[in-house]
Design goal:
heterodimer, A: alpha+beta, Cytochrome-c3 Hydrogenase, chain B, 3-stranded antiparallel β-sheet, 15 helices, 47% helix, globular, B: mainly alpha
Chain lengths: 386, 326
Amino acid sequence: MATPTLARVELDYSGGERLTMNMGPQHPSAHGVFRAILTLEGETVVGVDAVIGYLHRCHEKLAETLTYAQYPSIASKTDYVAAMTSEFAYVLAAEEIGKIEVPRRAQYLRVLTAELQRVASHLLWLGTWCMDMGGALGGGATIFLYCIRERELILDLFESLVGARLLYGFYQVGGVRYDIPSGWTDSCRKTIDLIDQRIGEYEGLLEQNPFFLARAQGVGVISRALAEDVGIAGPLLRGSGVNFDLRRAAAYSSYQDFQFTVPTEITGDCFARYRVRMAEFRESIRIVRQVLDGLPEGPISSRPGLKSVAQIRIPKGEAYARVEGPRGEVGCYLIADGSAKPYRMKWRGASFSNLAVLPHIIPGHKVADVVAIMGSVDPVFGEVDR
Amino acid sequence: MPAWIVPIIAPFIVLNVVVGLVTYVTLLERKFAARMQSRIGPYRVGPHGLLQPIADALKLMMKEDVVPTAADRHVFNLAPIVFLIPCMLIFATIPFAPGLGVADLNIGILFFMAVSSMEIVGLFMAGWGSNNKYALLSAMRAVNQIIAYDLPFIFSALVPVMLAGSLKLSDIAAAQSGLWFVFYPVIGQLAFIAFVISTLAAENRVPFDILEAESELVAGFRVEYSGMKFALIQLGEYAHVIGSSFLGALLFLGAWSGPGPEWMGPIWFLLKAMLLFLLVTWVRWSFVRIRVDQILALSWKLLLPSTLALLVATAIVVVWRYGGGA
C-alpha cells in the first residue's frame, strides 16, 4: 500500500509561511465592530483587509422618513461619541437650503457645545487608545479611567443643558433647542479649568513614559502625500503636516469670531496624531472660554415656538454642509423637495474616510502595532457604517 | 510526631496557605489598582469586598467547562495542570523562617529557577492545544520571552548568591542579618532593579504581558479556557508572582530579619514579599505594554549584557573583599 503523501509546508527562515488571522468583528480593541483580516508572517503583518458594514442601520434612508425637526436627534446616532457634530452638519445643510438665519446667541451656543463635544470625544479617544496599547488590565486602563472621569464632567454639563448624556438633539433648524440654565456658565468654567489642568497631568504621565514613547513614536507613519491622496481628515491630516481645519478654512457658524490656532505636526506617526489631539484639547478649551466670555444675549432660535414636528418646511434645493468634527470633516448632503422631510440625505463620515488609510500603513508593522494604529485613527463605527 | 509525617504534612500546609494567599492577593491587587484609578474596587461581597475572592472562585468552579471541538483534547486538558505544578513547586524551597519550610535544599535557588522556567511547557501546551491562532501566537511569544528573560533573571539572582557564598536559600537569608543585599553599595541596587525587571517579564506582567495582551490577542494562550481550568491558570500565574516576590524579599530584603521577637520573622517576610508584590502591581497599572521586538531587544541588548557585567563585578568585589572565601 502506497503511503499517502502528506501536504508539506516548506519552512524557510525568511518567515515565508503565512497565517491569516481575523481581528474582529468581536475583538476587545475593535472599537466597535471592525473586522481586519490580517495576513501575518510570524509577528509581522504583511497584508490587511478591512471589512466594514457590521453596524449598518440605514441611517440615510431613515433620514428621508423623518422631518427636519425630528432628524437631528437621530443624526446623533451616527457618530455617537461626538453626537453634537452630526447634528450640527445636518442643521447647517438645512439652513443653507432654506436660507434660514441663526441668531448669534444660538451660533455661540452651537460653537460652545461643539467644542465641549470635541473635548469629550478626544478624552474618550485618549483613554481607549491607551487601553489599546496598555491593556484593560494594565497601565492603559488607568489612563482610560482618568479620561472617563473627566469626560463624565462634560456629560454632566450636557445633561443639565439638554437632559441627555450621549445623544442630544440639541441643535434644531434655525437655532438650538434649549438655552443654558442658570449657573451653567460657572460650572462649565470650573469643568474646563479642571480638564485643562488634568490634560497637563496626562501629558506628563504619558510623554515621560519611555514605554509609551516606544509604542507611539515612528509607528504608523502617514506621509503627507499619502494623507492627501487617501483623503483623510481631521487630526490625522494635521498630524501629517497638512494645515487644514474647516473651522479655519471654511469658517461656519461663528468660528470666525474666535481666536484659536490649528495645531499641526509633521512626523505623521501615532505620536504626532496624539500631539495634535492634545493640542486640540487646549484650543477647544480656549474657544469655550471665549464663547463664555462673549456670549451675546438674544433669542436662541429664529423659529421659536415650534409646535409640530412637521412645521419646518425647507424649499426645494440642495446643499452640502461640512463641519470639523473631532475625527475630521463631517459632511451632510441634503436634497430638499419643499416638504417637511428631505428627499435624500447623504453622510460623509470622517471615520469612514480615515479608515481607508489603514491598509496603506499597517503592513510591515507588528500585530501589537495594529491596535495602536487603529486606535490612533480613532474610528467610530456608528459613523463608518451609518 | 514521627519524622516521616513532616514531609507529608508540610507540603499540604504550604499548598493551602499559598492558595489562600493567592486568592486574597488578587483582592489586594484589585483594591490597590482601584485606588490608583480613583475607584473603590470590590466592595459589595462582604465587608469591604473581603469575600470577593471566594465568590470569584465559586463562580469559576460553577462555570461550564468548554473544550473547543478542534482543540487537541488531551493537551488542552493537561496544560493547566502542567502550568500550575511548577508554579506551586517554587514554594517548596522557600524557608519562611529559620527551619520553617518544606525542603531547604542546598541548591534551593537553582531548584527555584529550574522549576519556575518549567511553566513555559504548560503555557505552550495551552497555546498549542487550544488550536486558536491568538493562543498560538501568544505561546510563541511566551517561548521567546521566557528564553530571553531567564538569563537576566538567573544572573541577577546570582548576585546575592555570590555575596552570601551559598546556593541554599536559608544561608542567603542568614547572610543578610547585618546588611540587606539591596543596601549593598551599588551592586545590590543594580541587581535588585534587574531582578525586578526580569521577574516582571518572567511573570508576564505589564509592561511585559505580551502573552496575554488582551487588546491584541484577546486573552492570549488562555483564550479558550473557561471555568476551573481558567482558574487553575490564573492561580498558577498569581502563585508565580507571589513566589517571585518571596524570592525577591529573600534575596534582597533580608527575608525574615526585622525588629521584634523571633516569631515575628514570617510576618516580616510576608510583609516584605507583599511590598514587592505591590511594587510589581504599581508598575503593572502605570505602564503600557511594549511590543514583542522591543521586549526582546531590551533583554538581549541591554539587560543580559549588563547583568552579566554586574555578575563579573560582583565576583571581583567578592574576591577583593573576602579573598574568595566569603
